[in-house]
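Form P-L/3: holo structure prediction, ligand adenosine-5'-triphosphate.
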Amino acid sequence: MARFDNSTLPVIPLTRGSVLFPGIVHRIPLPPNGSYISHLLSNSHARGALNSPGGNPLDAIQLACVPIASPYLGPNGQLLLRDSDQQDNTYLDVDPSNLTTDDLFGYGVTVRVLGIQGTTSGSAELRVEGVSRCKFKALANERQSFEATDYELCPDQVSLTDKKIRDLFASLKAHAQELVSVLRVSSFLSRSDPKSLLSPLLAQRLTMFIMKKDLKDAGLLADFMANILDISYEEKLQVLAAVSVKARMTKVIELLQREISGMKGNFSVTTVTTVPAQILDRLSNRQGKGMGLPTSATPLLNMSPPGGFPPGSQDKGNNKDPSDIELLQKKLEAANLPPDAAKLVERELKHMKNMMPGGNEYSITMTWLETLAEIPWATVTEERLGPETLARARKQFDDDHCGLEKVKKRLIEYLAVLRLKQSINDDLEEQINAAEEEEARLNAEKEEAAKEEDPEAKEVPRVNSAKLEVLRARRAVDKSPILLLAGPPGVGKTSLAKSVATALGRKFHRISLGGVRDEPEIRGHRRTYVSAMPGVIVQGLRKVGVSNPVILLDEIDKLGKASNMGDPSAAMLEVLDPEQNHTFTDHYVGTPIDLSKVVFIATANELDSIPAPLLDRMETIYLPGYTTLEKRAIATKHLVPKQMRANGLSQGQVILNEAVVSKIIDSYTRESGVRNLEREIGSVCRAKAVEYAEAKDGGQLETYRPEVTEQDVEEILGVETFEEEIAEKTSRPGIVTGLVAYSSGGNGSILFIEVADMPGSGNVQLTGRLGDVLKESVEVALSWVKAHAYELGLTPQSTTNIMEGRSIHVHCPSGSIPKDGPSSGMAQAIALISLFSGNPVPPSMAMTGEISLRGRVTAVGGIKEKLIGALRAGVKTVLLPAQNRKDIRDLPTDVTEGLNILHIWDAIRLVWPDSQWAVDEKKLAGLESRL
Ligand SMILES: Nc1ncnc2c1ncn2[C@@H]1O[C@H](COP(=O)(O)OP(=O)(O)OP(=O)(O)O)[C@@H](O)[C@H]1O
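OUTPUT (holo model):
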């Protein structure tokens, strides 16, 4: 057991090359079981408690820590060997149990015990904090315990009036701050190494810590910096041995200078602090007002350390990179902002000059101003709306698209109106300018007159102002409508809009509204939000760089519905309203933008899902699907040459004849548009390109065959993907052929409706993935047939229930394909009548039409697609509602010639002309319609 008396001081050797300084917290690992440190602690505690009973037991423990001596230093820290390269640091790998007093350094620190802490590895650590330097004159070693038998405590002595000390302290602080800045910059530059990262928060704390130290803490600050500096063990021992604060500061400043210049070798530092100017302000104010900080620290704020900016000058904005703001200012000037925006920008720029660069607000404002500078406020594409515009547009449309005559005609009309309105607007603009000049002149005259008090002159400007207002109002109203191209996928909506842009010579930008769910996506987030951005419209304008592009609002029908994130379609209303869009406000930009020069063209696959107010603002041009004939023409004239070019083939290297194109259309695609057709033609071209290249490389070009046969198509594209629904050859009661538009892939096709009856109690079973509307139309048909069973001759008496004792099952085959819509109502009713009467419907006959509960057959949509599908499926006769007569006029001739189209008034008679069971005119006379 160690023996202690009050004149001795227990000493713990620090191993692993560590040096403890006053003010620094250190952890000393406690060896397991029976450690001498434990004995030492308990004895020291017992002795301390004896001396000062009742105090904090930890405070009672008196200890010192001593580092291992270096063979390269003398007992007072003087360097014995100058060339550190020759140093061998193996002396530091000591076994604590074999230490002798000779192994210990002559200086150490007394410590305060903070506690004992367990570690995750199961061992314990003693936490101590250095208190004061201590010089050991004599050390004793007894049973592995060390004690200083003769020692001298050396607390820091700082003379607050010593100018040399004050200057040294100011220099130490400045260097310490500079080191933090340099560390921050270097960690920023070497982001790839996470170990070298100094977070902004930590850098700020360090700077604050340094700033808060005052002259009486000079020695502590020097110790703190020596502790964090990357210096050798000997240098640390030297700092420990520097009892004089002056000497210590000199040594630490020297070490700091070396460290800083070493780090600065690779880059130049322009910013030296991370403490916000306001805090520095506050600090200097506090000092000025004598709020606890000694005035001796004041010179610090005015000092000018080598290589850095004086910290006190930071609030004057000197440390900002002026080129950033200047550059931005120039960009903003060049952007030609409207007066409102210019005022806003000026204010923000002024504000920005007082901000800390790198701060959050600074970068937010910077990004915002950059966005504003990039918006094309006044940049426009030069107009090409001249007398030749329409001819050029016509040629462009014909070059890019086959068929679509009606649509092209409508687009030409649109461009003609755009041109006329523009010339009217140009005239108006001229008149407005003239009127404005006139008003300015009259105002000047009025002022003159007012000076001379002439009452007559005052009336004239009022007349002129009214004229100006009228002119301005006319200009605002004379805007062209927004076009909506609606139709199934791949029918050329996007490419038509592109052709419009080409014909007008304007830039084109496409905005996909498909995934837009929130209003801010259209109108932007307020710039105070984290990672706020402008909306899609402003982003589009920034991208194209002009204020008069053609913007395609693609898939406007897929725009999200109103939610807690706002209603995107409401924001769209403002964009599309010619009355409002000259002052469109994006939340991020925060100032109105004129969208009136933009030509907006929207596209949609269906109109039902577009909110009515939005639909109302647009003029719809419907693009129906293509017939096989049209597809063939498009493929031959456009898609084949296009795909050949795309695959590096020149004319004549691939020949696809009509039969081959038809095979691709019928067997490999089922769509209203031509997108898949283009893809399949692309596959064929690619396969031929490989064949051609191989033949050429092998020197056997003569063996290459450019013609593609139907067999080749099968080999290249694989097994036929689609087999058309073919009309039945025979029929049974209860089976009717209906028509659908936009079935799989948006094509028209036929649909079989099968009804069977069985003994039961009047139940109706529906299968075949029927949608709610379709189910309802079955119910309507059944109710009508039940209600008129007697008139139709299906029951012998008017009181008989036709469903009595039976149940029915309605099924539509292709059960995996969902079906919906009311247009099969008539076919359901005919199928039921057919079932109950036992009369089959001719198999080559198909029908479509919605029925009401009164038995009226009403118009349905998608006639063109349905009839094309019917023709393809081998249907000969089609029954259509009388109201759909108008749709037949636009049908391609191959459809009108290939089908016997009958508009029904008396459907039953058309289906069963020879039947005897429904000819009682008297009975039918009561019906409102002749289903
Ligand atoms: N009448 C046509 N003549 C020539 N090519 C056409 C015609 N119609 C469509 N195409 C071509 O079909 C492809 C698909 O057209 P586009 O992308 O314009 O379809 P879309 O109607 O916009 O489809 P979606 O609704 O899916 O966006 C384009 O390559 C286009 O050039």
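COMMENT: The first helix runs from residue 36 to 51.
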